[in-house]
Amino acid sequence: MYQTDPPRPAKETLPTMYDLPSEYPEDSGLPDEFHLFQPQLLRETFCPPNYPAEEVFVATDLNLYYDLRHTLWYKRPDWFAAVGVSRLYEQQNLRLSYVIWQEGVAPFVVVELLSPGTEKEDLGQTLREINQPPTKWEVYERILRVPYYIVFDPYTDKLQVFQLVADRYSELDLSTPRVWMPGLELGLGLWQGSYQRIERLWLRWYDASENWLPTPLERESQRANRLAAQLRELGVNPDEL
Fold first, then answer.
1. Which of helix, strand or coil describes residue 225?
2. Which is it for strands 98-99 and 79-83: parallel, antiparallel or unpaired?
3. Greatest CA separation found in the chain?
4. What is the DSSP letter of 23?
5. pTM (2 d.p.)
């Protein structure tokens, strides 16, 4: 391919999400139940008030391509969110992957859920091998410069939060297992409760008043309870309707 003058932008010349594979057959098998339910709860409660819904994209176990010099290199976070980017790819299509040189917006927050065998890489304790792609930590910290990197161990319920300070991640000293993110006007913390009829500690988003943000099912239940209360004030028993 010959060089044009001026050079054509990467968005036109490099592979798009339609060209890049969304998964590889050598990848490990399906995740455990926690790795299915926890990202779902994060998605259902992630509603940053300073961004319209059409400018918020969240993803679970989706290939994240990050290096325009090595277009097949990718990471696959357990959950991540990007804001200020179209919910749909170019306002029209569901994404097959998230390609940085096409999107132009890096994730604002990445969440990794520790699994046996991934702990050292997730926590930046592995070294990059010669002629191999960078580690997760290097990608999130140095290449994508993700402002918040969250690591949660579902086996010990330990929450670790790393915030980008200058050009390095600094672990926050959490007096309580939660962190406020001013750029999102949201916080993320550990909530003890029942989700999918499973009682345990879950990662969940909360608002500026420190109220846990409801899931769609909880919002419906809250609306029904308010309506029932209004009917009772009018002397109507909703249970008899």
1. helix
2. unpaired
3. 80
4. -
5. 0.88
**Omega of the bond prior to 116 within 30 degrees of 0, cis?**
no
> Which residues does residue 192 pair with via DSSP β-bridges, in sequence order?
201
As a whole number, the mean pLDDT across the chain is 91
Give the angle subtended at the CA of 144 by the CAs of 141 and 148, to the nearest 5°: 55
Give the pLDDT confidence of 69-111 residue by residue, as tens digits: 999 999 999 999 999 999 999 999 999 999 999 999 999 999 9
Q: Which residues pair with 99 in a beta bridge?
A: 65
What average pLDDT score do residues 116-134 get? 84
From the list 42, 87, 58, 82, the residue with the least C-alpha distance to 183 is 82
Using alpha carbons only, give the angle 87, 39, 214 rounded to the nearest 5 degrees: 80
Residue 140, C-beta contacts closer than 8 angstroms, at least 6 positions apart: 75, 110, 146, 149, 169
Both structure tokens of 113: 């859920």
How many Cβ atoms are within 10 Å of 57's Cβ, its own excluded?
21
For residues 48 and 39, give the distance between their C-alpha atoms in angstroms, rounded to a whole number.
Answer: 16
| Contacts of residue 188, Cβ cutoff 8 Å, sequence gap at least 6 | 109, 150, 161, 178, 179, 181, 203, 204, 205, 206
Residue 145 pLDDT more than 90?
yes
Mean pLDDT of 169-191: 97
CA-to-CA dists, residue 38 to 27, 145, 158, angstroms: 21, 24, 15
Closest residue by Cα to residue 27 from 4, 61, 65: 61
Name the residue among 87, 88, 180, 100 with its Cα closest to residue 140: 100
